[in-house]
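This follows on from our talk about sequence and fold. Please put the record directly below this note.
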Amino acid sequence: MTQPAPSQDATTGEEIASTTVPPKRTFPKRNAFSDLMSPKKPSPSKKTPPSDTPESDPARTTTFLGRDGLGAYIASPASFPASRVVYHDEKWVVINDLFPKSSVHVLLLPRDPSKQLLHPFEAFRDLDFLKEVQAEVQKLRRLIAKELHRRYGTFSALDQKRQKAIDALDGDGDSDSRHLPTGRDWPQSVISGIHVGPSMNHLHIHILSVDRHSGCMKHRKHYNSFSTPFLIDVEDFPLDKQDKRKHPGRERYLERDMKCWRCGKVFGNKFSRLKEHLDEEFEEWKKE
């Protein structure tokens, strides 16, 4: 994959330098998010990559340095704990981002060898593959919405209103539950897409909560990479030939003034002020 120009690379040196080293094979307790995200265990199939077994583990014999770091998860997802690899099958690996830019942030990694090292613009020319990616992203968006409800539902005024109505129905078999308050629309708090200038070599799609609340959000390029057209929703593909998002350097998305995703307030290049503001907005967003 062609490397992004330095001005259009949102990744820090620390992130690029991180080497993915799988731990010794263990069987840790699963966390709540992994339990929620995990599909039913598929039946054994001859098509399952042999790298998923401890007897054949390329992640232990191959070093995935720097921008190739995602390759370890694709090669041997079973080598990682549930806190890192959320789920995997013969087509996909889903991981919690090592440097999340929101309170919930996962990456979808396609395992198709013919697509792994392509730029998203090139990979998504295959419309059949694009449809598969779009379907998997939609599934993840729904699952992340459920995770947001699990984490923050008790703070949400709309969810509290619904829960009170449900509690009031207990023991009343004649009541019509169809007229309950709908509760919060958590799927509206999930965003997803690819970066027009990917910082990692292996094809990956971001799915994350909209809050941009994370200790790993450290500078303007981080923020703008998820708050400008630098992030393109996979549903927007295939792109028109004249789509200006194909030219991130010319559009200078990462150098734009920062604007709060929630209230629209402009912070220019004052990241520390934006960061404080995002902390405040996060608390208010939870209460919606």
